[in-house]
Amino acid sequence: MSTPSNRRLTTLALGAVPIVALGGLMSIDHIPGTDISLTVPYAAQGPGPTVDTLSSVEGKDVVEISGAETYDTSGQLNMTTVAVRTNMSLSQAIGRWLTTNDTIVPLETVIPTGTSSEEMQEANQQAFVQSEAAATVTAMNYLDIPVHVVVAGVMDDSAAVDRVKPEDVVLAVDGTEVSEPAEVQELIRAKSPGDEVTLTLENNGQEREETITLGEHPHDSKIPLLGVTMSSAPRDGMNVTYNLQDVGGPSAGMMFSLAVIDKLTEDDLTEGHFVAGTGTISEDGTVGPIGGIEHKVEASQEAGAELFLAPAANCEAATSRDHGDMVIASVETLDDAIHAIEDFASGAEVKTCAE
């Protein structure tokens, strides 16, 4: 993706508020050639790129599955993004407002006051990893494939850094068996900063226990922080990897789940149609609302999408602008999304946001 020379462009997979937890990998570098002291405290949100989760980027599948039989797919399942421009001069902000469909918003809705670029990047990375984990769990649940919790990364300044390693499998927390990242998070959140937690871990067939003192979350000192990002992997040796860089937040979750399901099932889900969409995904299959959907709808229509999957809670915003002949379906669960695609492909009536 090219970056305009006179401003900083960042791609976000925006989720529901608060943005600090769900935004993208944002840079707050000042615009080249612009005195940062003269920039305005506003950001411009507009249509960002759409990415086909069934395709490849730089030679790698966006959703890569190994250790299991996969099937050919047709059509497209595009995740959508919002482009955010920050550190604009007054004239640049006015220009975006007058000449584009961008939404001008207070800067603090994109970069919360008192948040550093490093903290923002860390929060966005964690949100995206959690989204990937939820997408895998949801797809495996739909396909009745058991999963376990895998450590994706460990924060350098956390107490876990010398105790926990990437690719460790988390078997239990304080003796309570876990199989999904959300279960680990729930058990950790029940504690307080300074409390100890004992993790039962497994790596290369070797089981061990590690006791860790919980830290404080950087944005709320009352929330305990383990300092570990977690993903999910099927227990039977299958591995799902998401090869998409420079996008943060959880709103690609639903589309990732759909891509995994399409690749692992013999039936062709899209039957050659161009489907786009957005929405967070919970491990129970619930599709959650996101931000900036009007821009995602615009980008999808311009890209040629025939069907757009919108979280039900976002329907009013999703249909607030002209979307041509593109059908906008209202979905509340992963099952709703699959039924909408199947109904559209068969020519049956689709539950739309207009209903």
Automatic annotation (TrEMBL):
Gene3D superfamilies: 2.30.42.10, 3.30.230.10
SUPFAM superfamilies in the cross-refs: PDZ domain-like (SSF50156), Ribosomal protein S5 domain 2-like (SSF54211)
Active site residues of this protein: S251, K296
Record carries keyword Hydrolase: yes
UniProt domain Lon proteolytic: residue ranges: 246-344
E.C. code: 3.4.21.53
Catalysed reaction equations from the record: Hydrolysis of proteins in presence of ATP
Taxonomic superkingdom: Bacteria
Keywords: Hydrolase, Protease, Serine protease
Molecular function (Gene Ontology), one example: serine-type endopeptidase activity
InterPro entries documented for this protein: Lon_proteolytic (IPR008269), Lon_Prtase (IPR027065), PDZ (IPR001478), PDZ_sf (IPR036034), Ribosomal_Su5_D2-typ_SF (IPR020568), Ribsml_uS5_D2-typ_fold_subgr (IPR014721)
A biological process term (GO) from this entry: protein catabolic process
Pfam families in alphabetical order: Lon_C, PDZ_2
Family: Belongs to the peptidase S16 family.
Protein name: endopeptidase La
Species of origin: Corynebacterium stationis
Species classification: Bacteria, Bacillati, Actinomycetota, Actinomycetes, Mycobacteriales
